[in-house]
Amino acid sequence: MPVTENEVLHALRTVIEPDLKQDLVALNAVRNVTIRGGQVDFEVILTNPTGPQKAGIQRACEEAVRALPGVEQVNVTIATVTFGPSAKDRPAIPGVRHIIAVASGKGGVGKSTVATNLAVALAQTGAAVGLMDADIYGPNIPIMMGVKDRPDTEDERIIPLQSHGLKLMSMGFITGDNVPVIWRGPLVTKMIQKFLHNVAWGDLDYLILDLPPGTGDVQITLRQSVYIAGAVIVTTPQNLALEDVKRGILMFKQVDVPIFGVVENMSTFICPRCKTRTDIFGHGGGLRLCEQMGVPFLSEIPLDPEIRKGGDAGVPIVVGQPDSPQAGAFRKIAAALLAQVHIVEAKRAEQAKLTEGLKVL
Ligand SMILES: Nc1ncnc2c1ncn2[C@@H]1O[C@H](COP(=O)(O)OP(=O)(O)OP(=O)(O)O)[C@@H](O)[C@H]1O
Ligand SMILES: [Mg+2]
């Protein structure tokens, strides 16, 4: 007796989607079950296709169904639903799926370091990733990504430069070392809009925005000019007691941009010689703040000279020393971020009834 579709679905109730914490059948993620004798084929629709859990889910599905009596072979196809920008009042960039802002309340906490390493770590998972330097006054991306060229234009659109697998745009590419020290607000607004809508970004899974510190013109312009999926807030442990991190979080909440999570940068220092851990700026404040504010804590990055050297040399540590624990810390953040993007977008899609029968939460 061949297995029935019901038995297959019953078996798949044991496979839990790790981000959404529901089984695949409850999520209505199993499609097109076909049974031919001992062979069972079906499709599983995931909303986080580049996430690290894809292979695990595929394996769990195969194992669950193969354990059924009468089943000899199982073919699982993982398919994707694309949650694009859904809010009609905010324009999208055609071809760009998720725009993620990396922000901080204070300057110098490591936004650009986190933005570059995070963007490269996402690209290393197989995603198409762009990195836009939204810091018009103090662009950091050219040095950190090791790019100095001037971009070409085609049909009045700027062709982004490329480095370490990312598409890049920065004010530094346009002005070289002569970035104007003072720019009037309207010019900054115009430049940000140009970077968003006048650059040939092409098809991207993620566009990461490296923001200037604080809550100024650029943040407001960005929010008004484009649909931002969510924000990552970078902080150092000692700033956490200060009100500016909270202010940053509140600003995004006020303008209806979800917080994907907080990164505690320059956390514990581990002495390279004696391996002693020292909490130079303190430790654990990130987690406490997140609990207080009800936002996710993504993880922490150690204070480490190799991270700074990578930035100065134009080779992010996830490229220069991919096997180091520091690179691992950035990859952990990338994975945690993907999970949050997935959760937030799935909720939003459910609310917007965009899921065409796919029950996501
Ligand atoms: N985890 C770390 N360990 C060691 N050095 C770090 C770390 N994170 C950042 N740095 C260094 O600290 C300095 C400031 O970092 P970065 O430029 O990324 O901060 P930022 O928040 O983008 O600053 P700004 O607000 O000026 O744009 C850089 O020299 C960088 O290499
Ligand atoms: Mg910066």
In brief:
It contains twelve helices and 17 strands. The chain is of the alpha/beta class and 361 residues long.
Could you explain how this protein is built, in words?
It is a single chain. 36% of the residues lie in helices and 23% in strands. By secondary structure, it is α/β, with parallel strands linked by helices. It has an eight-stranded mixed β-sheet with strand order 10-11-7-12-6-13-14-17, sandwiched between helices. Strands 3-4-5 form a three-stranded mixed β-sheet, with helices on one face. The longest helix is centred in the last third of the chain and has 27 residues, at 325-351. The site of adenosine-5'-triphosphate (ATP) has 20 residues, from α3, β14 and α10.
Key phrases:
361 residues, alpha/beta, GMP Synthetase, Chain A, domain 3, Rossmann fold, 2 domains, eight-stranded mixed β-sheet, three-stranded mixed β-sheet, 12 helices, 17 strands, 23% strand, globular, binds adenosine-5'-triphosphate, binds magnesium ion
The portion of residues forming beta strands comes to 15-25%
Multimeric organization: single chain
Number of domains: 2
Largest sheet: 8 strands, mixed
- From the helix content, strand content and strand pairing, which structural class follows? alpha/beta
- CATH hierarchy, class of the largest domain: Alpha Beta
The stretches of 5 or more residues where confidence is low (pLDDT under 50) are 84-89
Mean pLDDT: 85
What is the tally of beta strands? Answer: 17
Bound heterogens, unique: adenosine-5'-triphosphate, magnesium ion
- Order of adjacent strands in the largest pleated sheet: 10-11-7-12-6-13-14-17
Q: What percent of residues adopt helix (DSSP H or I)? A: 25-40%
SSE arrangement, N to C: HEEEEHEEHEHEEEEHHEHEHEEEHEHHH
Distance between the termini: 35 Å
CATH superfamily assignment of the largest domain?
Answer: P-loop containing nucleotide triphosphate hydrolases
The CATH architecture name of the largest domain reads: 3-Layer(aba) Sandwich
Number of helices: 12
What is the general shape?
A: globular
